[in-house]
Amino acid sequence: MRALSSLRWKIALTTTTVCCLVAAALGILVHNVVARQVVGEVRKEAARDLDHALGHYEYGTAHGDVNAALDPPGLPAPLRALVARGRTGSMVGTHGGEPVMWAAGPADRSALAVWIPYGNTRERLRDIDTAILASAALAAGVVALAGLFLADRISRRLATTAAVARRISAGDLDARVGFPADTGPDTGAEADPGPDPDGRRPRRYRDEVRDVAHALDSMAASLQERLEAEKRFTADVAHELRTPLTGSLAAAALLPEGRPKEMINDRLGALHRLTEDLLEISRLDSGVERADLSRVELGRAVERAVAATRLPAEVRVVRDAVVLTDRRRLDRILVNLLVNAHKHGRPPVEVTVEGPVVVIRDHGPGYPAELIEHGPKRFRTGDPGRGRGHGLGLTIVAGQAAVLEIAPVFANAPDGGALTTLRLPVGRLPEAG
């Protein structure tokens, strides 16, 4: 959400910055054009007065109502130098402490200069600049508000899409963004008006946020269909294998005792266990499994579950606790973890109970990084070199733990070995009597 909020402000700031830059460029352009026009009018007026004064000087008459003088002391030096080269010109300067527009031309060996007040023109230019700045500030403010408004709508729709993506990642494949196919003025997109009478389709506006949402919905639907197909396939295969396997096991029991019978029974037993695991996974995937919760003394339950496996493991109860769990499902989780530790790890295998937390550890190579990061995947053992197992044991652990609403943590111990942590919900002690 913070990233989307940042995106909203980035869009608003970018829009405002671009608006300010455009307003500044247009302001400078307008200022230059208006200033050139206003100052040009004053220069023309000064030039007319200078022509008038030169005419009177040539005929030796008075200058009339024109402010004119020969070599006045306030004449700017650049203009005086220009006149000395026999040319006429004009520039802004001061006379008697007031801003004026000077115009001067050669008169014999002197400079005949006229001046007209320039204060009003300067004030006019300042008023124009103030109006330009005020208009630019107003435009920037309006664009900033509009940009923030539009960015907020975009970010809210992206936030909805991101929330749905997180729900899908968490396993809720029914989650959908659900933006309408054709949106109205809320997003700036227009509905498809259909083909023109001549058969050509008019150009329609694209709504990229809506496209992303629809792509996410399509991906979720496709993923859901694939997973449902996989679940159905797993359940169908397991059910179809169960009947011939039962017959094969019965037929194998009739074989004479010997090594061939042992080998057949061993392979048929492995196939039978695989079939039962597939059926269990299909039931867990269906989402219909419900836990039969009861209060259980965790230390004693773990000791009995470990003893039932007949696998060597050291059980250490640091502090016992009464937890609220399904005893059968908890036994299934512990048995699978112990079997996995002996198959893919090395002894000693240690089981520690400390309050509502159970930790199972071996001293083997540890879990692969992919399993720690993404969790167990079916038919992936993480131990391809040994070629043992089908990767279903930890998948069943994760499925049964989900039914119990606990999250197993798969990690590696600092000094080596796989480390699995189960944190169970605490239940109240049963009342005496």
From TrEMBL:
Enzyme class: transferase
Localization annotation: Cell membrane
InterPro entries noted in UniProt: HAMP_dom, HATPase_C_sf, HATPase_dom, His_kinase_dom, HisK_dim/P_dom, HisK_dim/P_sf, TCS_sensor_his_kinase
Kinase listed as a keyword: yes
Top-level taxon of the source organism: Bacteria
EC number: 2.7.13.3
Listed GO CC annotations: plasma membrane
Keyword Transferase in record: yes
Gene Ontology molecular-function annotations: phosphorelay sensor kinase activity
Catalytic activity: ATP + protein L-histidine = ADP + protein N-phospho-L-histidine
Coiled coil start-end: none
Keywords: Kinase, Membrane, Phosphoprotein, Transferase, Transmembrane, Transmembrane helix, Two-component regulatory system
PANTHER family registered for this protein in UniProt: SENSOR HISTIDINE KINASE TRCS, SENSOR HISTIDINE KINASE YKOH
Protein name listed in UniProt: histidine kinase
High-level lineage: Bacteria, Bacillati, Actinomycetota, Actinomycetes, Kitasatosporales
